[in-house]
Design a protein that fits this description.
By secondary structure, the chain is mainly beta.
Length: 547
């Protein structure tokens, strides 16, 4: 029986009110349409090159969003090769389906498109995106992704007069296909890069501000393999963010930023109104040890300046690892500051939690089938034709090497494989990265932040735990491991999914220095993990299986 008209009207009004409340409660959406193409670029004035452009731009468009915004990016691949983007540092809460690496996503075929749908959930800070297939990132396709705080959650410093984004990285004259051919032919490391760039330029980037005001500089290393040191002539750098978390605000003359890392610092324009050099120089590589180390320069331009500041460019710090390691140890978590959530960072007492297991992961450079590869505990990762996330979702056999990477180096013969380490949701684990080579390593974990509790020289032993910082270690998503040294992290596995743990040095990643971690619970629930997207591309052995 139908309700009386008055009751029906009241019911309709109630439904509309509830719907309006739900709509108002939904976090904002930001929509982007990106066309990925080849195009002519000229970052090194004497050498025109074919670059990878997004909407005709190199570097790609900057995404500015706010904590918890929903990001919808429809990517059209107009290249002649499959293409993917990964969102470096965005945790993809419960949603590794959107991570954009070859272990979670089928690449976008030439002439096709894919729409990423993800949320900057409970995050704030300086991030980047870049191509994750092959050596595409050496040709462009990268850009900034800045997540600003909600008005209700203050940051621990006064609002700056403005902020500047610096995408710093190494650059090659050779194209991405030529670089890939080098690696495929003989393996081993790429040769030293030809240049460093700031925002796609070796010397023309300019940042304009007013005398007496303070600005936020967001710096990300988007290069292939080279660590950099960043400094500004005559000015101090007050560190205020490290990859989405707030550190104690120490002041530095310069900052080391390793591949895949991001930092943000405040600079007050308190000098005479002139132009000052912004300098990035290579660190810990043949490019840094050369007679003329690689360097990129920009300009901090005071708006009323009519001349350049006198004097030489600010010199780099000592090349020795000890200087850089001591700087890294000085990065400390600000325990009283809020990040994206209202509760203080220090309310999570990570140092009091017992670890459930320890992984000691050693990088190496074995020769397999006549090719120099890179490996983790003797296993060199080979990318399968079917993403591991799809393999796991559809229970496809004989693809994944479950737990085939030993928890510690075991001295077994080097071998190839497709290793996935199985871990339980809500485990709390210790990971030690052991570097037995003379090359600085940079390690990144998708889906997570972690606490960097220790750095050291030589071989790690369990006795090193007495040196860990268990109170205010810096949280971040990418950690450097110094030559012939170790770095230790603690990770709270609160994000279910298939997550890539990889070398951020892209030639090493391409040749096998990576693995995946499946964080899982048998309790299937949307509160733990989202289902496969209806628009997921299916390829390899998952082709035709349906969603």
């Amino acid at each position: 029986m139908a309700p009386p008209p008055a009751a029906a009207a009241a019911l309709a009004a109630c439904i509309l009110a509830v719907a309006a409340t739900l709509a108002a409660a939904d976090d904002p959406y930001r929509f982007f349409t990106w066309n990925v193409t080849y195009g002519n670029i000229n970052p090194l004035a004497s050498t025109p090159q074919q670059g990878i452009l997004i909407n005709g731009q190199f570097p790609g468009p900057r995404i500015d969003c706010v904590t918890n915004d929903n990001i919808i990016v429809n990517v059209f691949n107009n290249l002649d090769e499959p293409f993917l983007l990964t969102w470096n540092g965005i945790k993809q809460r419960k949603n590794s389906w959107q991570d954009g690496v070859l272990g979670t996503n089928c690449p976008i075929p030439p002439g096709a498109n894919y729409t990423y749908k993800f949320q900057a959930k409970d995050q704030i800070g300086t991030f980047v995106y870049f191509p994750s297939v092959s050596m595409h990132r050496a040709a462009g396709g990268f850009g900034a992704l800045n997540v600003y705080q909600r008005p209700a959650i203050p940051v621990p410093y006064p609002p700056p007069a403005g902020d500047f984004t610096l995408l710093v990285g190494d650059w090659y004259k050779a194209g991405h296909k030529q670089l890939r051919q080098m690696l495929d032919a003989a393996g081993g490391a790429l040769p030293p890069p030809d240049a460093l760039l700031i925002n796609g330029m070796p010397s023309a980037a300019t940042f304009v501000g007013d005398q007496g005001r303070t600005y936020l500089f967001r710096v990300s290393n988007v290069g292939v393999k080279t660590s950099v040191n960043v400094r500004i002539q005559g000015h101090s750098l007050r560190l205020v963010e490290v990859e989405g978390t707030h550190p104690v605000q120490n002041v530095y003359d310069s900052l080391d930023v390793h591949v895949g890392q991001s930092v943000a610092f405040l600079v007050t324009l308190d000098k005479p109104a002139q132009d000052y050099a912004v300098v990035a120089s290579a660190r810990f590589s043949p490019a840094a040890a050369a007679a003329a180390p690689l360097m990129a320069t920009g300009t901090l331009h005071y708006s009323s300046a009519v001349s350049r500041a006198p004097g030489p460019l600010p010199p780099p710090p000592p090349e020795q690892a000890e200087w850089s390691m001591n700087q890294a140890r000085s990065f400390r978590w600000n325990l009283t500051a809020s990040a994206a959530r209202p509760n203080p960072q220090g309310s999570f007492h990570y140092g009091t939690i017992a670890t459930s297991r320890t992984l000691v992961l050693a990088n190496s450079a074995p020769v397999l089938a006549g090719q120099r590869r890179y490996a983790v505990n003797g296993v060199s990762f080979v990318v399968p034709d079917t993403p591991l996330k799809l393999v796991d979702n559809y229970n496809i056999a004989n693809v994944i090497g479950w737990d085939s990477v030993p928890a510690r180096p075991d001295g077994a013969a080097p071998r190839s494989g497709t290793p996935v380490v199985r871990l339980n949701l809500h485990e709390f684990i210790e990971v030690v990265f052991q570097n037995t080579e003379n090359e600085l390593q940079s390690w990144h974990l998708d889906g997570y932040d972690f606490w960097v509790v220790g750095y050291g020289n030589g071989q790690w032993t369990e006795n090193q735990r007495t040196t860990y910082n268990l109170v205010d270690a810096q949280a971040r998503h990418t950690v450097q491991v110094y030559p012939n040294g170790w770095s230790a992290i603690l990770v709270s596995l609160d994000n279910q999914g298939m997550w890539n743990l990889r070398s951020a040095n892209w030639d090493r990643q391409y040749l096998g220095q990576q693995l995946y971690m499946r964080v899982w619970t048998p309790q299937q629930s949307f509160s733990n993990e989202y289902s496969i997207p209806t628009n997921a591309i299916l390829c390899g052995r998952a082709a035709g299986l349906g969603h």
